[in-house]
Write a structure and sequence with these properties.
single chain, alpha/beta, seven-stranded parallel β-sheet, six-stranded parallel β-sheet
Length: about 425
């Protein structure tokens, strides 16, 4: 790697959400290039979160802008029946986009879970991600996906079938060996044209991991709780949460480190609320920084006894640094398939060839998670630590590293 190429990136990373921009940054570091064009749907992110990490790179940001909003009827029709033509016709700065694509050698679609029917509820953001990909295809640029999660599609299958049909010949990779491939096949992609990679943050570049910490926590004997939960859920169960913090400290001597992955109601507000009501807690406040630094998150999770998380990348990093973890599956409109596919797929990636039960890691109900930990946290820790100590787990990680490295070399044409 290291050829002097200009690489374009596009993907669902234009918010403070730790996992999404973290995948982008890790891809940039692993590609070992210095010249990037980052296509975004926000004027703030990911630039705010990348500024501390990319001072040695030549990084240009291009915000994709759309023409006037549609009325509700038009928006609903586009959700199911729009084509690449409709996407391109909505782009306000199409000439700027074309000029930026012209300058790059390859367009990389950074990992994430944006190709599904849930994202058609964010149709304008979806269009802004798709537009650079479509323009790159027009210009016969090399188009490469890193490890994306796919599906479910349901009623939006035709929308995605036309998208993938347009970019035929793109190099596609998925991050789970569970259902993403079958969803892709629904959209007209043949299995022989799909690669399998680990999630873009499962193997974090050592240069990122070893960066100086922004903040060090004071607790030494703790569990870490990522805080992406609906506020009403936390308020409705306030007494149970208070009791949990008391009991795990009294029974096990464990305090709680509250670790938000995103700002305001996506994690930071919840962390502040929990810090106010629960005993023996320490909060990692990300408001002043504006994002959660990757090296800090890894350090906190690695040194924890256990992690409780509703974020997929809480599960990913826990499995990577060998910390026991319980991932709360969250529903989208009463549908758990999306998060189950991500969670189950990541577990199968880490523990391929090893006997395990996913219910030791995946749960749906927060209070049930708290009860499991309060009643027998040591059993939870011991069962998962046994898996991490397996020779096969170590071999799997080394094999996944080799697969990812080989794939990224191919991105650069090596």
């Amino acid at each position: 790697m290291g050829k002097k190429l200009k690489i374009g990136f596009v993907g669902p990373y234009s918010t403070a959400n730790f996992g999404d921009w973290g995948m982008l940054l890790n891809n940039m570091y692993d590609l070992e290039c210095e010249d990037f064009v980052i296509f975004t749907y926000s004027s703030k992110f990911p630039q705010i979160s990348l500024d501390d990490y990319c001072s040695e790179f030549n990084t240009e940001y291009v915000e994709v802008k759309l023409k006037e909003e549609r009325d509700n009827n038009q928006e609903q029709q586009e959700k199911y029946f729009s084509t690449p033509y409709d996407v391109l016709m909505r782009v306000e700065n199409l000439n700027e986009l074309k000029k930026a694509i012209k300058k790059i050698d390859v367009l990389v679609i950074s990992g994430g879970g944006w190709i599904n029917h849930f994202w058609t509820e964010r149709l304008e953001k979806l269009y802004k991600i798709m537009a650079p990909i479509l323009v790159a295809r027009q210009q016969e640029k090399k188009v490469v996906f890193t490890a994306n999660g796919i599906g479910p599609f349901d009623e939006t299958k035709e929308f995605y079938r036309y998208f993938f049909g347009y970019i035929k010949g793109a190099k596609i990779a998925i991050r789970d060996n569970y259902c993403s491939l079958s969803h892709l096949m629904e959209a007209g992609i043949e299995s022989k044209d799909v690669d399998y990679l680990p999630d873009d943050m499962y193997l974090v570049n050592p240069t990122i991991v070893n960066k100086e910490l922004h903040r060090e926590i004071q607790q030494k004997n703790y569990i870490v709780m990522e805080t992406f939960y609906p506020m009403e859920l936390l308020r409705d169960n306030e007494q149970e949460l208070i009791n949990f913090s008391k009991k795990i400290y009294e029974k096990y001597g464990y305090s709680i480190v509250l670790l938000p992955y995103d700002l305001v109601e996506y994690g930071s507000d919840q962390a502040k609320y929990l810090h106010k009501i629960m005993e023996q807690t320490e909060i990692y406040n990300i408001d002043e920084i504006g994002y959660l630094p990757i090296q800090d998150a890894i350090s906190i999770i690695k040194n924890a006894k256990l992690m409780i998380t509703a974020r997929y990348h809480g599960l990913v990093l826990s499995l990577s640094v060998e910390t026991p973890v319980i991932f709360r599956l969250y529903d989208k409109r009463g549908d758990f398939r999306y998060t189950y596919n991500k969670g189950m797929g990541m577990l199968r990636t880490a523990f391929e060839g090893i006997e395990f039960c996913e219910t030791d890691f995946l749960q749906k109900d927060l209070i049930n998670i708290l009860n499991i930990i309060e009643s027998n946290v040591q059993n939870v820790i011991n069962k998962q630590k046994k898996l991490y100590s397996s020779k096969r787990y170590v071999e799997n990680k080394a094999n996944l590293k080799a697969i990812r490295t080989k794939y990224l070399k191919e991105v650069l044409g090596d």
